[in-house]
Amino acid sequence: MSRRLKLALQVATDATGLxxxxxxxxxxxxxxxxxxxxxxxxxxxxxxxxGQQLNRDYRGKDYATNVLTFTFDDxxxxxxxxxxxxxxxxxxxVVEREAQEQGKPLEAHYCHLIVHGALHLQGYDHxxxxxxxxxxALETQIVTTLGYDDPYRTDTE
Length: 157
What we know:
The protein is α/β, with parallel strands linked by helices. The protein has one domain: Metalloproteases ("zincins"), catalytic domain (Collagenase (Catalytic Domain)). It has helices at residues 21-31, 48-59, 92-102, 106-121, 129-145, and strands at residues 4-12, 38-46, 67-71, 84-91. It has a four-stranded mixed sheet, with helices on both faces. β1 (4-12), α1 and β2 (38-46) form a beta-alpha-beta unit. The longest helix has 17 residues, at 129-145. The chain starts with a strand and ends in a 12-residue tail after the last helix. The model has no long low-confidence stretch (mean pLDDT 91). Single strand-specific metallo-endoribonuclease involved in late-stage 70S ribosome quality control and in maturation of the 3' terminus of the 16S rRNA. Pfam families: YbeY (PF02130).
């Protein structure tokens, strides 16, 4: 099945070690479920101030978080054949801090968060335990297929 992804990348940070557009496209395409034929996604990489403002304004949480997902229409379910539309916002300082704290390569953590956000765009969530287990299993399968370690692995050996 041939998928088409139109990807826009916006960088609003001077952080280093950011993934490039081709890498982001590979990760998002890997996360697209079989019913998604086309997708238009904007990835915006921001600093702490913008990340905190967006999280406060849209989620009511007054801190910067690693990834925010914005669907084009929250009330529209993902329908096979319809284009997937949405935005992913990554807060570079949070992503970098988390990678260091978790002892993970920065690139691997970015990959995981992009996959996580792309699954959210498609309606996956982790509010209850069953949904969380399903989403984490999918994330692990996708991320490891892309050549990175299991993002939920807690040992360091």
